[in-house]
Amino acid sequence: MPVCIRCGREVETLVDGRLCPSCYVEVRGLGEAPEELRLTVCPRCGSYRFQGEWMPPPPGGLEDVVAMLFQARFRPHPEVTHYRVEEVVLEKSYDGDYALIRVVGGLRGVEGEHEALYRVRLRVAHQLCPACFRRASGAPTAIVQIRGTGGRLGEDERRMVEEVISSLGSGIAESVISVDEVREGIDIKMMDQHAARTLASKLRSSLAAAVKESHKLIGQRRDGRRVYRLTLSVRLPFFSEGSLVSYRGRLARVEEIARGYVLVRPLGGERLHRLRVEDAWRLLEEPRYEDEADVVVAAVEPGWIHLQETGGAYRYLELRRSEVTVEGEPRVGKNARLIRHNGRYYLLA
Predict the structure, then answer these.
(1) What pTM does this model have?
(2) What is the tens place of the pLDDT at every residue in 229-259?
(3) H or E element: which one contains 32?
(4) 3-state class of 162 per DSSP?
(5) What's domain 291-348's superfamily in CATH?
(6) CA dist., res. 237 & res. 262, Å (int)
């Protein structure tokens, strides 16, 4: 049986032909570790710079960053079949910062795993990442201007906008520098133009908002490239889900707004018309009523509907069924709404 030249024990396998697994790891470790690790970390958000790019902060904080950088620079010995960083402990010393790194790995021809401990010096530089720098300076690269019908934003519209923003998750929220309430609506200043476009796109697909894009030159980089600020003008339509609209001269109801389409159903029917947001803005109009009243269904005959107006006027109306588009079930004694639009009556029972 082979004998270890260091401890003299007989073992089944000598790792490099001379040392037993325990002596091998004790003498040589599992590989060559870097003498020091240099880290650039954002003091505000914890993101770090890796290979020239800023990476989001890992869930485990600085220890995870050290583990990743160490693993990238660690050079395992040829006899090591696999390895992983098992634990990182940060320590401060009189002469600087260090990391104690426990590495676990396997040796060729040897069952089980062995571990080695490395002490590596850390040189940590603190620097604001581009996102935190823009947030600190308050200089947005994009502005999303949200306006309502007629230029103003109502309370219901504000609530719908807030619901859309909250549905996008933390990635969009982290890009927001400020949300400014202005007389006309809301101005959302953002650091990231991609996030701003994502927000505007979601408002278009979920609320049928019209989006216009413009750019303004705000500076120039050292390499000569121009820097533009993106402005996205987002205007909400007069309608929302459940609204009555005029569609090709007839009254219709907006049944659903989703995925960039508006589903419209003419009153009295079941067929849905699927319109793109841009087509909805062109084809749907805010309805104007020639007459509007609250009524009670007094009688229903094969060719006629009898209605008693309420609310003080108390008119009694006898309407031919051919003149009335009925939405719902007009039962005797049921309260309903009578609307006259483009010369035709609509009974919303």
Answers:
(1) 0.61
(2) 899 999 999 999 999 999 999 999 999 999 9
(3) strand 31-32
(4) helix
(5) Nucleic acid-binding proteins (2.40.50.140)
(6) 11
